[in-house]
Amino acid sequence: MIRPEFAARRPRSSRMRSSVAAVVLLAIGSASLAQSVPEEGEMPSAALDLPKEMTIFGKSDPNVRKATAVVNGQIITGTDIDQRLALIITANGGKVSDEEKERLRVQVLRNLIDETLQIQEAAANDIKIDPAEIQQSYERVAGNFRQTPQQFDAYLRTQGSSAASIKRQIEGELAWSRLLRRNVQPFVNVGEDEVKSVVDRLNAAKGTDEFRIGEIYLSATPENAEQISANARNIIDQIRKGGSFAAYARQFSEASTAAVGGDLGWVRPAQLPDELAQAAAEMQVGQIAGPIQVPGGMSLLYVMDKRKVLTADPRDALMSLKQLSIAFAKGTTKEQATARAATFAQETRTIQGCGAANDIGQKLGADVVDNDNIKVRDLPAPLQEMLLGLQVGQSTPPFGSVDDGVRVLVLCGRDDATAAGAPSTEQIMAQMEEERVNKRARIYLRDLRRDAVIDYN
After folding, report:
1. In whole angstroms, what is the distance from residue 453 CA to residue 71 CA?
2. Domain of residue 345, residue span
3. Using CA atoms, how far apart are residues 173 and 34, in angstroms rounded to an integer?
4. Is residue 363 part of a domain?
5. For the chain, what is the domain count?
6. How many other C-beta atoms can be found within 10 angstroms of the C-beta atom of residue 311?
7. Which of 50, 204, 246, 312 could cross-link 419 (Cys pair, CB 3.0–4.6 Å)?
């Protein structure tokens, strides 16, 4: 579990809304980490009084995998599984081996069972999501792809999925979040002394490193650790081949942060279990590591960003830029493009301020575009480094390709970032409440699984 020293994250309500809106955007395009102590209501494994030496009678055949299930009388069909699986495969550009598809199919079925249990429990508490609200969320997702709902319906069908599958996932998230707000959140409290303690620790940590971390947590026992580790390595391989970390976190992570793509927000190493803290401290932005053994299972870590606690980050500076670009005619060879790019580079090196950029652009036949209020961190990493080293009026070296043409950026102005302040009391309290709600939500879902009647077909 993350310890309660953290930088501010979005309030719970906005995170819930954005989570639902991004459900499919992330898939197509804890409370926490592993617990160092048993969670509330959980029994340590020692309480099972297991024998040291065991003989397994009637071993199950790992090659026999049942594809569908009936959960408390509600059917999950093979089509349901296929359509949800198609979203994951699409997120990986369709490059998923047959063996990996079978493993994913088993996990998708588990996820659908949990989703069904959550919707059923919400309905039992008189919580039903209006179809019009589900449709509105679906339309927002389609809009993110610059498509109408009808166009998005057709796109999903070409990928082997359907609008119904996505709407079901949206319904599950909305129903579960409202159930937690009614049955769990009112009974979670955070004291002012706890908040003050967090603020004091944040101020004491000013200037130290903190990371924006993504995590996929997989529970494991000594008996299945080898298989879970193999699953974890398969996930890493798929992500390194271009798969979406957020999509895999949503589908496979057993931490409650799965709903937001595994995003833990900004954390410092001191807030993490020792095993994860050591890994994070050694990683660079964009790296993924794992599987990392932690109490109760293993984790995959992804470093999304890095900054200093309560310290201005140069990458938050806003820049005014002027872009000069030239395109290459169709059929231009690499040698011809290189020669013209060299001439372009020689001429643009003479730029002395943005006032001269237009004249040089006209001389070179280049397109000139003004871009104001560009945040440095929103640019590709190589450009970030170049721009941060420029003085006003200087230009970057040319960059581009034969297909995209060549361009330079001229720095016309920069507003440096101000030092970040500590999060407000309300933000800290909301985050601490959220972590506690998430912990109880995990126990809630565990109990639903325990009481469920599930028939595998």
Report:
1. 6
2. 314-415
3. 22
4. yes
5. 1
6. 14
7. 312
